[in-house]
Amino acid sequence: MEIALSAAMKRYVSRKVKSGAFSHPEDVVRAGLARMMQDDTLEQLSIDELESIFPKFRSQIERGLSDARAGRLSDGDAFFDQLEREDRGVERRRRRTA
Description:
0% of the residues are buried. The chain is 74% helix and 0% strand. It contains five helices and no strands. By secondary structure, the protein is an all-alpha fold. The longest helix has 22 residues, at 76-97. The protein has helices at residues 7-18, 25-43, 47-53, 57-69, 76-97. The mean pLDDT is 91. It has one domain (8-97).
């Protein structure tokens, strides 16, 4: 099977391989498809099934909403920038120990 990717998608795949997170471009595509399949499965679950898998999700959502109502908010861009920095650090450490 051949799949055509947009230029942006090709750059993304290349960055993932260059970062060391994946060995081959095919691995990036497989991981993306696996994630989509997982998402599809989760979308089909009932609330009760979700609660059995993620027992604290309702309380965590409520806590987040309470924090937001009280004005305790985080800057989304800053949060994801920090998350990305942490992820890069984990990847660097993983490569050093490999």
